[in-house]
Amino acid sequence: MFITEYSHLSQNGSCWTEAFSAAVADLEKQGGGVLTVPAGVYPTGSIQLVSNMTLSIESGATLLFARDENAYPLIPLEFEGIPNLAHRPCLYAQDAENVIVTGYGTLDGQGNYWWAQVRAKTLRSPRPYLVCFNRCRHVVLENVTLKNSPVWTVHPLRCENMTIRGLNIKNPADSPNTDGIDPNSCRNLRILDCTIDVGDDCIAVKSGTEDTPDRLPTEHVIISNCHFLHGHGGVVLGSEMSGSIRDVVVSSCIFYETDRGIRLKTRRGRGGIVEGIQLFNLTMEKVMCPFVFNMYYFCGKDGRSERVQQKTAIPADETTPALRDVRITGVTARKCGACAGFFYGLPEQYVEGIPLSDVRVEMDPEAEPGTPAMMNDCPKMLRAGFFLRNARGVKLDAAVTNVDGPLYNVDDSVEMLEDTKA
Is residue 326 a contact partner of residue 271, using CB atoms and an 8 Å limit? Predict the structure, then answer.
């Protein structure tokens, strides 16, 4: 069916929310089917999808999401790993299966309405994600353009067997918390052939926080053939990792002007383990720091507390996070600014097992100083080599050029493997 069949419900074209609701309800009664949105502009509020349906947004079609918080009813939904009453996402599915969103049209979240409230500190409830699948199975999201998201753009939450392919995601550089794709506690996920240019992390893989009631892992994830343009990090693991993140492969991706390339971030209190990560065949250019492993991440609740940020050891327990077994192979990074790599573990829980092989980093002679990690007392750096603290099993088979100063900045807390190249 075509959404235009419901134009009599669209209030003379001023808002299509009722028309979308009626069309989806009809498909649900039929047991599923295809809803086609032909070329045109369709102002609408939140749309909820159901099982066994395809939403086909044709080239030239734009779903223009309303600048009105009343168009997004409040629902129970995790926000940044914390259960909350949040505005229902612009495009949403819950407990559904066999759902496809496809086509070469556009979803426009008109996020400036929400960003202004964030800056003015007048926001009363968490902003709506542009697209969210919550506890869904067998999902495909492909080819559409997503822009001006109110907050995170695509948020798969506790999903299984999902493919995200061919997306074009664009949010302004100064838009707050507009990550590109943030899977949380998902299994068997593929992110392929996407172009992401956003105001925060491009892809951030998560698994809940210490405040998430039922922490589930994110595991078996493939990220391949993607372009990351700008943003705070290209591919990020954490900082929400309390349910653990494992078995993630990132390959054949290009990073351009992202602040950081590969970014792992966590802190005391989060718990969870990041392990079994394979990163290979990556190209970076004009990246401030290609590799950042930071276990003192300070954003969010209690992030700047003395317990989280103190540099002396405290007893390890179930709330102590772990980063280990992250293998990086075949990376070329050109015109980098701050340092070749920044690895900072906890004194009671070292970053462990960091073999870098066939890595080439070229520092930019014209770069400006930058702060590689978001942690208290992190120094600004300029054309530095590898900075390491509290790290074990380090192998850096890397050729670094245009470095000012020593290639390695280490102390007695770092255990380098004997065959690390100088």
Answer: no
Q: How many domains does the chain have?
A: 1
Q: How high is the mean pLDDT of the chain?
A: 95
The number of CA neighbours under 13 Å toward the Cβ of 24 is 20
Whole-number pLDDT of residue 411: 93
- Provide the residue count of the chain: 422
- Residues 101 and 54: their CA atoms lie apart, in Å, by 6
Residue 125 falls inside a structural domain: yes
Per-residue pLDDT at 371:
95
Is residue 377 situated within a structural domain? Answer: yes
Return all residues near 2 (Cβ < 8 A) that are at least 6 apart: 35, 36, 37, 38
User: Does the active-site annotation cover 200?
Assistant: yes
204-237 pLDDT per residue, tens: 999 999 999 889 999 999 999 999 999 999 999 9
* pLDDT higher than 80, residue 420: no
Whose CA is closest to 132, among 94, 103, 175?
94
Q: Which of 182, 200, 201, 364 is catalytic?
A: 200
Mean of the pLDDT values across residues 174-181? 96
Read off the pLDDT band of 422 (50, 70, 90). Answer: very low
The CA distance from 8 to 147, in Å, is 28
Residue 86 C-beta-side C-alpha neighbours within 13 Å = 21
Nearest 5°: phi and psi at 118? -65, -45
53 contacts 35 by C-beta, under 8 angstroms = yes
Q: Does residue 390 fall inside a structural domain?
A: yes
Q: Assign residue 253 the CATH number of its domain.
A: 2.160.20.10
Cβ atoms of 320 and 266 within 8 Å: the answer is no
User: Does residue 421 form part of some domain?
Assistant: no
- Count of CB atoms situated within 10 Å of the CB of 153: 30
Q: Which domain holds residue 200?
A: 3-416
